[in-house]
Structures are given as structure tokens and as C-alpha cells.
UniProtKB/TrEMBL annotation:
Record has Methyltransferase as a keyword: no
Family from the record: Belongs to the NAD(P)-dependent epimerase/dehydratase family. dTDP-glucose dehydratase subfamily.
Its EC number(s): 4.2.1.46
Protein's name in the database: dTDP-glucose 4,6-dehydratase
A UniProt-annotated Pfam family: GDP_Man_Dehyd
Reactions catalysed according to its record: dTDP-alpha-D-glucose = dTDP-4-dehydro-6-deoxy-alpha-D-glucose + H2O
Keywords: Lyase, NAD
Keyword Nucleotidyltransferase tagged: no
Cofactor(s), by name: NAD(+)
């Protein structure tokens, strides 16, 4: 029987879903609980291969539902919580900021309240490098854990607020926690609204590929499985109360990323369509992961190997992303659980 109970909120999303797979396969003696509200980006079909495993459990619940969350924690007595559940698409935060504040800030407050009450051993807050603001395009500087928080979008402001709340609970109540801030993730099962899967799927269908502004915004790209390994390390060995940055040492402009995908698929650059830039679009993000590397983590993917693997995954799993685009995935929960 499993002796350690790990709750993963947002475990049907992109990074959370990959982390569920990672932990299920690496720790068969852990009981893994995936708690997800199954909003538009929550996809259970990615867990078809593991949903029958004895150590996998799914709970449909919203982190904003304080009464239900407290009842779940009181019943299950979780040892650890890794908190992914969040609204995360910047464009959506610009058009509808309110839901980001509710889910990302108030939902986090519910979780730290219940974590404190039920004496969970550690709470891991999954955050983003976007809370630091932006770096200049010609800058050789990098974000460290000591950078001030200067968010520039409603999304990043909501994540920064949640981070500060988690820190405050640690300082005030002694909440055992770590905060992990990552650079841009890519890899299997990413929702097709994001840059890399959007480019792959549109190029495969010979559709126009939108690129904001001049495409010169720079991001540091991190393979999702390297991120999962970092989270696992911090979960087990992170020093209580510390923040850890996770970066892939893979800076690329958005345009470089798009062209790499197009060329790999043998498509024409004529598919690229420059569109009006996003409001408050940060120029550059770059992470210094030295602190995490000193803990024992190293990325295993460079961008060339990681993007090639990712493109191949989307080629091999067309059925998955087609049912995401069509919306069919949203019926899977009702069918699987016979509701």
C-alpha cells in the first residue's frame, strides 16, 4: 500500500499533467492525487494510460471551493501538495483579468489555509519567470531569485500575488513551502493555444501562423520533463522557505522558434503572419538556475533535441491534438466516469 500521499492541483493541465505521469512512473509507492476543475485547458485524455493504475486518483474539484477542498484534505491527509492549478494564458488575462485574480490568488489562499490546518509536510507553489518583469533585448543579465517582482500583465501580477501570499504564510505561520519559478515550458500535451504547439499544428495543416509584433521577443525555453525533474528535486531536497528558478539555457526569439518548426516540417515561411503586438508584451526573459543546479539539477534537453522530440510527438499524436482543437476532449470526463 502507498505510504506517501501527493496532491497535484491542476494535474490535467500541461505541466501538471506531465508531472503526474512523471511521479506515477517514478514513485509507484506514492499515492498520486490529481485535483482539477477541468476548465477549458484541463484534459483528462492525456491520462488514459495511467488512470487504471492503483496509485493514481482523480478528484474533480475547484480550488476556489473552500468547503469542498477542506473536506477533501481532512479525508485524505495529504503529505505533500504541488500547486499547478492556475489560469495561465497571458492573452486571456488581458481580455478577462478577473478570473485570473480569483483562481490564481484566492484559489491559492484556500490551499495554503487548508495546508496549514492539516499540517501538510510541504507546499510547492509553481510560479513563472514572468513575475520578474522583463529584461532588455541586448541585456546579458538574468533573473535570479533575488530580483524584485515587477509583473507586467494581469496573469503575471496574479502569480506574483500568489507567490507573495505563500511567502507570507511561511513567514507568519511557518508554512513549509518552496516556490519554483520556471521559464517557458514546451513538450508533449501542451494546449494548442501556446506558441510551439500552435505553430506545429497550424504548419501541419498549412494554416497561417501568427507572430506578435516583429517576433524578436526572447524567451528561455525549458523542456517540460526537465521542469518535472526540478520539481521532484525541490519537493524532496529543497530548503524550506526557499525560491528556486528553473531555466533551460535555451534563449530564442519567437521568430526563431517558429522558423525552426516550419523548416523541420518542410513548410514555407510564407505561412508566417505578423500580427499586432500583445499589450504589455515583455521583451526578454532569461533565468539563472545556479541555485537549483547547486541543489543537484541539470537540464537534459537542449533546444535542438527538445524541439525535434516535441515536433515528432505532435506528428505521432495527431489524434490527441485534433480532439483538443475540436473540443471533443471535454466530454471525456462524463464518459469515463459515466455521469
Amino acid at each position: 500500500m502507498p505510504t506517501t500521499k501527493l496532491l497535484i492541483t491542476g494535474g490535467s493541465g500541461f505541466i501538471g499533467g506531465n508531472f503526474v505521469h512523471y511521479m506515477i512512473n517514478k514513485y509507484p509507492k506514492y499515492a498520486i492525487y490529481n485535483l482539477d476543475a477541468l476548465t477549458y485547458a484541463g484534459d483528462l485524455t492525456k491520462h488514459k494510460d495511467i488512470e487504471k493504475k492503483e496509485n493514481y486518483n482523480f478528484i474533480k474539484a475547484n480550488v476556489l471551493d473552500r468547503q469542498e477542498i477542506f473536506a477533501i484534505f481532512e479525508k485524505e491527509k495529504f503529505d505533500y501538495v504541488v500547486h499547478f492549478a492556475a489560469e495561465s494564458h497571458v492573452d486571456r488575462s488581458i481580455t478577462d483579468p478577473e478570473i485570473f485574480i480569483h483562481t490564481n490568488v484566492l484559489g491559492t489562499q484556500v490551499l495554503v489555509d487548508v495546508t496549514k490546518k492539516t499540517r501538510v509536510k510541504k507546499f510547492i507553489q509553481i510560479s513563472t519567470d514572468e513575475v520578474y518583469g522583463e529584461l532588455g533585448l541586448d541585456s546579458s543579465s538574468f533573473f535570479t531569485e533575488d530580483n524584485p517582482l515587477q509583473p507586467n500583465s494581469p496573469y503575471s501580477a496574479s502569480k506574483a500575488s500568489a507567490d507573495l501570499l505563500v511567502r507570507a504564510y511561511h513567514q507568519t505561520y511557518g508554512l513549509p513551502m518552496n516556490i519554483i519559478r520556471c521559464s517557458n515550458n514546451y513538450g508533449p500535451y501542451q494546449f494548442p493555444e501556446k506558441l510551439i504547439p500552435l505553430t506545429i499544428t497550424r504548419a501541419m495543416n498549412n494554416q497561417k501562423i501568427p507572430v506578435y509584433g516583429d517576433g524578436k521577443n526572447i524567451r528561455d525555453w525549458l523542456h517540460v520533463l526537465d521542469h518535472c525533474a526540478a520539481i521532484e528535486l525541490v519537493l524532496h531536497k529543497g530548503k524550506n522557505g526557499e525560491v528556486y528558478n528553473v531555466g533551460g539555457h535555451n534563449e530564442r526569439t519567437n521568430l526563431e522558434v517558429v522558423k525552426t518548426i516550419i523548416h523541420t516540417l518542410g513548410k514555407s515561411e510564407d505561412l508566417i503572419e505578423f500580427v499586432t503586438d500583445r499589450l504589455g508584451h515583455d521583451k526578454r526573459y532569461a533565468i539563472d538556475p545556479t541555485k537549483l543546479e547547486n541543489l543537484g539539477w541539470k537540464p537534459t534537453y537542449n533546444f535542438e533535441t527538445g524541439i525535434a522530440q516535441t515536433i515528432q510527438w505532435y506528428l505521432d499524436n495527431k489524434d490527441w491534438w485534433e480532439q483538443i482543437i475540436s473540443g471533443e476532449y471535454q466530454d471525456y470526463f462524463e464518459k469515463q466516469y459515466k455521469l
